[in-house]
């Protein structure tokens, strides 16, 4: 069944990745993700259905608009393929489980929020705030199905703890922490808490460690002390590290101490 979950998740990822391309472009600009239909920015011709097949259409069109020849960025198929791979990896990790929808949702917002933050240094409320409802709902349904109320209570505690930590950090050092990071943190803490407190610790430590490493690297390359980096992507990467290996890493650390 895991193989079926992987295949279906990859196919779903291609479709979701195509939609995420629209989200990443339009949401930061305050545009609707529904209307108008996808169109060429140069000639404004609406993209035909046969030209809207993830990855395949870009290859068949050789990366150009069918009507005017305007180049189509390779980022579009890259996002579609990358989302498909991400969904497939999540399905391989989780398997055919009631938790799969919750983690696929996290994978989807991870992709679009990381790209938007890298593009415009912002984590839009239009994506983050609905996650405050969707993520607890999906994890809550999984907890009910698995009869694991303790995991859901721990998830809510994790969301509160991580959210409070980021709020205090933003108040103490506003130049280094954006409000979007603070709003996203309870969502990530929710997922980490569902897995365990070891995941919370490793996930948050990993986020700040990665952010510091990349920040130093950017400073060395640019030699500009004012050159900042968006923290959202590293929060997200740290969270996935915590989810996948956090419990085992934290357990190993405690064993060494013991």
Describe the structure.
- The protein has 2 domains: 1-96, no CATH class; 100-258, no CATH class.
- It is an all-alpha fold and 258 residues long.
- The chain has 9 helices and no strands.
- Helix content is 72%, strand content 0%.
- It is a multi-pass membrane protein.
Structural descriptors:
single chain; 258 residues; mainly alpha; cell membrane; EC 2.1.1.-; EC 3.4.23.43
What count of helical segments does DSSP give? 9
Mean pLDDT: 92
How many strand elements?
Answer: 0
Let me know the largest β-sheet.
none
State the separation between the terminal residues, measured CA to CA.
40 Å
Summarize the structure.
It is found in: Cell inner membrane; Cell membrane. Helix content is 72%, strand content 0%.
Topology, element by element:
Layout: H1 2-26, H2 56-60, H3 75-94, H4 100-120, H5 125-146, H6 149-172, H7 179-195, H8 197-222, H9 232-257
Helix pairs in contact: 1-3, 1-4, 3-4, 4-5, 4-9, 5-6, 5-7, 6-7, 7-8, 7-9, 8-9
